[in-house]
Each structure stands twice: as structure tokens, then as C-alpha cells.
Amino acid sequence: MSYKTLEHATDAIIEVTADNLKEAFEIAGISVIETILDISKVDENNSKKLIVKGKDLKYLLYNWLEEMIILTITDGFAGKRILLEITKNGNYQIDAEIFGEAIDLRKHDFKVEIKSPTFHEMEIKQDDKVIMKYLLDL
User: Fold this and answer.
1) Which of 131, 96, 88, 108 is nearest to 36 (CA)?
2) Pairing between β-strand 2-6 and β-strand 116-126 as defined by DSSP bridges
3) Residue 105, Cα to own-chain centre: how many angstroms?
4) For the chain, which domains are there?
5) How is the chain split among helix, strand and coil, in percent rounded to 5?
């Protein structure tokens, strides 16, 4: 569905609204990439696979956001589209494939570096829609 950036003096607070958890985590991943660079200029010439685990949904979200930051900033991969599945077998697990290309700073218009996600102000609500809120430390 969508996400929006909420007002904050020094960090990025993101609120995601989606029909289900799968879609919410896909949007959350895209929100990280779009915070860092201009995703509209990314081509899908390659893909990367990620497996992310968490003992509950908040840890899964934290670990997912952290892996998306590492993939983008540390590994230099600009994602454009994410396909993922979430499973629960005791713990939660995301099996994801991110489609994109190697980052080219001249092409992708680097915006800001994200240091890390935080648990501060993190919320996950599941009613008719899934609403996630999280803070990215810039």
C-alpha cells in the first residue's frame, strides 16, 4: 500500500500501512532504500537473496531494516523491488529476493546515510490493515 515519513528533527520516522505482514515488510524495505537514494533511477539487472530472522515481529522488523541498510550502504546494492515470504516456526523468518543493481553514486543520487534502525517508537499493529512505525537513526 504505502508509507509516509513523519516529522522528526534529526531522524526519519516511517509509518507503513499495508494489507498484510508480507506487504508491510516489502514496503518497509523499500522505505529504507528510498531514504538513502533515488530508487526511480535503479534498474533491475541483478538480484540478491537475504534470510532474516527474529524472535518476534519487532525483532524481525529491526533485523530486516538493519539488513536493508547493510545491503544498500555496506554492500553497495541499490534495490528497486522486493519479493519476500514470512514464515513462523518458533521464530519468524523472512526469505527475500531484492532486485536492483550495484550503486552508482552519480546515477542514483545518494541522499543520506542511515546509521541504524532503533526500537525507539517501534510499533506493529495488525487489525484490518497492518500499520508499522519505526525510527531510522540518520
Assistant:
1) 108
2) unpaired
3) 20
4) 2-137 (3.55.10.10)
5) 30, 45, 25
Yes or no: say if 82 and 26 are a contact pair by the CB < 8 Å rule: yes
* Residue 120 CB neighbours (<10 A): 10
**pTM given for the model:** 0.94
The tens digit of pLDDT for each residue in 79-120 reads 999 999 999 999 999 999 999 999 998 899 999 999 999 999
For cell 510499533, the residue is 123
CB burial string 6-28: b at 16+ within 10 A, e below: eeeeeebebebbbeebebbbbbb
